[in-house]
Write a structure and sequence with these properties.
The complex is a heterodimer of chains A (109) and B (114). Chain A is mostly beta strands and 109 residues long. Helices cover 0% and strands 61% of the residues of chain A. Chain A contains no helices and eleven strands. In chain A, the strands form two sheets. In chain A, strands 2, 4, 5, 9, 10 and 11 form a six-stranded mixed β-sheet that branches. In chain A, a hairpin with a 4-residue loop joins strand 7 and strand 8. Helices cover 0% and strands 56% of the residues of chain B. The termini of chain B are far apart. Classes of the chains: A mainly beta (109), B mainly beta (114).
Amino acid sequence: GQNIDQPTEMTATEGAIVQINCTYQTSGFNGLFWYQQHAGEAPTFLSYNVLDGLEEKGRFSSFLSRSKGYSYLLLKELQMKDSASYLCAVRTNDYKLSFGAGTTVTVRA
Amino acid sequence: DTEVTQTPKHLVMGMTNKKSLKCEQHMGHRAMYWYKQKAKKPPELMFVYSYEKLSINESVPSRFSPECPNSSLLNLHLHALQPEDSALYLCASSQAPHSNQPQHFGDGTRLSIL
């Protein structure tokens, strides 16, 4: 199985930056996804990395280091609506997606 | 709003009932998935359909029976469920099973077993 670790909770102030780390141990790595999930809603796709480096999409960026089994999601210019759970998900060569337990981010005014 | 539509949004059923969850997408995706999500836990994969054929069954009990009538529809038939089966059931789809495109999730069906 997959071993995916991310912090349980993070709190930050509106307008600030937060970095959510994800470490994983897996065989047959085939990409890493970040999803956002508001309580009671569907997970929505944020970003995808399969090669090492940084992917930037507006206020959200994601980084991957395959040799270290490490990724992070960077949220900039935090807004109240960014309060949600952020799920790190690892895809393996059989194209299954395994999710981490999620990081609950609370944005305070 | 998502492009993957699930019905019903909420379902309460007894342990002897038979019901079905439905999922529909019109994005031309050829891979469809069922996940189970308990409160404050991540989604767990149940089934994968690839080009309307069941390709992955994650050792799910037979009281859950998936069906893919066509490339746009995915059903999950429920029979003789247990209280521990109460959860959010998420459907997802992706362009193809072996593509780099992400999975898109529906809003889920919140299922309660009495």
